[in-house]
Structure to design on (364 residues):
């Protein structure tokens, strides 16, 4: 019983397959503080550089329109609806750049944390999320406690930052009532941007330990037991597609090794079209000739093409080619009952080589 409990304990790191499955489900380590801080930083930087001109232009257009058209327009249901639509459109156009920047910053924040990923799995309705017992456990879990502490800490630090900025500029705040509307709005806007940038930088600093914690917690959540790893290995081994790919890869590697040995061979015995068996005789390695490559149909054609490229002699012997293909494996010596036939072929090949060497020497 104790051994069974130990086997079910989540003590092992997640396998690549488990990580891929959790990623497809949208379960990835991600800190929302990274997104929030980037969105605030980009938006308030934009306001710092162009906010004054944008707000002044927007209010100037609205005031000009109000004093030239709206004040002399008859108040009816249609005119009020048109006025509301016009003001809403102007306000939307004014904040549209900020919305686009915020969306870009949020997307970029997610990308730098989890990379390119698109999944609809988290959006699917799951009835187990309505389970009150599981919900109660989530509320009072260690993760919820950590999130509560983080939230309280962030609120405290953000509040302290805002209070500090207001306190250091208290004189300007107290003098707002004595300033013109334009100057007062300028001071309020500048203080707002200053507080926004300070909070954004603060959240960016806090997002570093938060992201580290999220990665740690994610690794802890996806841990596997020894039994899980064994079951996964069995499932992979039993998958026909995995077996097929593995077999295909093994065949490709075997073909590559065969092709590398052909240039050093002595002869290729062919069928002539369906079978090809490559032989080599090396007294230092074996007492008898041995097979360095063999193939049928397409593989046989590749073997013969490779042999032609390196001027390896090819001898057509249908009976011997079939017998060698079916009775021997790569690296195995020629069977005893085929010694005589193979010896005759090798003798013929050696005579050809000697004749070729003699002709070459005579020409020279």
């Amino acid at each position: 019983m104790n051994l069974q409990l130990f086997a079910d304990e989540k003590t092992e790191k997640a396998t690549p397959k488990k990580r891929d499955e959790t990623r497809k489900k949208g379960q990835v380590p991600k800190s929302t503080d990274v997104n929030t801080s980037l969105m605030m930083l980009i938006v308030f930087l934009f306001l710092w550089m162009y906010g004054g001109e944008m707000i002044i232009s927007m209010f100037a257009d609205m005031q000009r329109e109000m004093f030239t058209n709206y004040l002399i327009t008859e108040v009816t249901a249609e005119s009020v609806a048109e006025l509301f639509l016009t003001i809403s459109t102007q306000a939307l156009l004014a904040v549209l750049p900020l919305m686009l920047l915020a969306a870009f910053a949020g997307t970029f924040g997610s990308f730098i944390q989890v990379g390119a990923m698109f999944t609809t799995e988290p959006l699917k309705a799951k009835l187990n999320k309505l389970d009150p017992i599981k919900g109660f456990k989530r509320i009072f879990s260690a993760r919820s406690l950590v999130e509560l502490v983080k939230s309280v800490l962030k609120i405290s630090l953000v509040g302290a930052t805002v209070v500090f900025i207001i306190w250091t500029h208290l004189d300007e705040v107290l003098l707002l009532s004595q300033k013109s509307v334009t100057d007062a709005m300028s001071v309020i806007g500048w203080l707002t941007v200053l507080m926004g940038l300070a909070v954004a930088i603060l959240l960016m600093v806090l997002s570093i330990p938060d992201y580290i914690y999220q990665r740690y917690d994610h690794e802890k959540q996806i841990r596997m037991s020894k039994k899980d790893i064994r079951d996964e290995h069995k499932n992979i081994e039993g998958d026909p597609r995995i077996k097929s790919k593995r077999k295909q890869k093994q065949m490709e590697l075997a073909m590559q090794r065969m092709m590398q040995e052909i240039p050093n061979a002595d002869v290729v015995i062919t069928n002539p079209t369906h079978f090809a068996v490559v032989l080599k005789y090396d007294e230092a390695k074996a007492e008898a000739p041995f097979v360095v490559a063999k193939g049928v149909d397409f593989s046989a054609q590749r073997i013969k093409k490779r042999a032609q490229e390196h001027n390896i002699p090819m001898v057509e012997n249908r009976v011997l080619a079939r017998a060698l293909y079916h009775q021997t494996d790569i690296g195995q010596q020629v069977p005893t009952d085929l010694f005589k036939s193979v010896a005759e072929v090798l003798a013929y090949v050696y005579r050809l080589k000697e004749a070729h060497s003699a002709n070459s020497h005579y020409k020279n």
